[in-house]
From TrEMBL:
NCBIfam families: HAD-SF-IA-v1, HAD-SF-IA-v3, HAD-SF-IIIA, PGP_bact, PRK13222.1-2. Mg(2+) binds at D16, D18, D181. Its EC number is 3.1.3.18. This is Phosphoglycolate phosphatase. It comes from the Bacteria. Its cofactor is Mg(2+). The gene is gph. Pathway: Organic acid metabolism; glycolate biosynthesis; glycolate from 2-phosphoglycolate: step 1/1. InterPro entries: HAD-like_hydrolase_sf, HAD-like_sf, HAD-SF_hydro_IA, HAD-SF_hydro_IIIA, HAD_2, HAD_sf, PGP-like_dom2, PGPase_prok. Belongs to the HAD-like hydrolase superfamily. CbbY/CbbZ/Gph/YieH family. Pfam families: HAD_2. Keywords: Carbohydrate metabolism, Hydrolase, Magnesium, Metal-binding. Specifically catalyzes the dephosphorylation of 2-phosphoglycolate. Is involved in the dissimilation of the intracellular 2-phosphoglycolate formed during the DNA repair of 3'-phosphoglycolate ends, a major class of DNA lesions induced by oxidative stress.
Length: 232
């Protein structure tokens, strides 16, 4: 970043997971490919899946069956449900062995935790998978709340989960920062009235994250410490 700006009043930081803390596409792509092929649909690649993730598993599997970011409206609902069940099974069986945390994630989270910030996960990923993944990478204990994609009726960019966090922790929107990699994260922050910090390396359907006009854009999550004036 060209100039270092600080946010003095932040008390609560909400993090997206996939594409922000964790590169999960390799596992998601394998599971999506297995699911669609098991239903006699064409194979999908990791490169395709990289552009399709971010809106939850139902939409990912719809895109994989459609071979397009726009889900084919003529797809049978029962087929979509069956494909989603198979996707979940394959994703669970894979054990998330191909996923990894991005550079500086662990050290940044630990520095923020040590500095006294409350931190939460707000992801569109199915809730069932999230706790194990956080545990697997040794960061589960750093978060006060973990919200998955099916914990509330509406997913990001809807601000429902962020508003719940604001209410639970009795902080104002100006005291919360949303950290993510996609326009869904930036829009969720704007819809909740809170600050936004966006990373360039994640999954944003092939669009530059700066197009969504977040307040802060960074190439590395460690830059968050500079913005918040946290010593490393």
């Amino acid at each position: 970043m060209e100039t270092v700006m600080t946010l003095q009043d932040i008390q609560l930081i909400a993090f997206d997971l996939d594409g922000t803390l964790l590169d999960s596409v390799p596992d998601l792509a394998v599971a999506a490919d297995q699911a669609v092929q098991s239903l006699d649909f064409p194979s999908v690649t990791e490169e395709q899946v990289r552009d399709w993730v971010g809106n939850g598993a139902d939409i990912l599997i719809g895109r994989a069956l459609s071979q397009n970011i726009k889900v084919d409206e003529s797809l049978d609902l029962d087929l979509l449900k069956q494909a989603r069940v198979r996707f979940d099974e394959y994703y669970h069986q894979g054990g998330h062995q191909l996923s990894h945390l991005y550079s500086n994630v662990t050290s940044t989270l630990k520095a923020l935790h040590q500095a006294g910030y409350k931190m939460a996960i707000v992801t569109n990923k199915p809730s069932a998978f999230v706790p194990d993944i956080l545990q697997q990478h040794g960061i589960a204990d750093l978060f006060v709340d973990v919200i998955g994609g099916d914990d509330f009726p509406n997913k990001k960019p809807d601000p429902m989960a962020l508003n719940w966090l604001l209410d639970k922790h009795q902080v104002s929107a100006q005291q919360m920062l949303m950290v993510g990699d996609s326009k869904n994260d930036v829009l969720a922050a704007k819809n909740a009235g809170c600050h936004s910090f966006a990373l360039t390396y994640g999954y944003n359907h092939g669009e530059p994250i700066s197009d969504s006009a977040p307040e802060y854009v960074a190439d590395n999550i460690a830059e968050l410490l500079d913005v918040l004036s946290v010593s490393q």
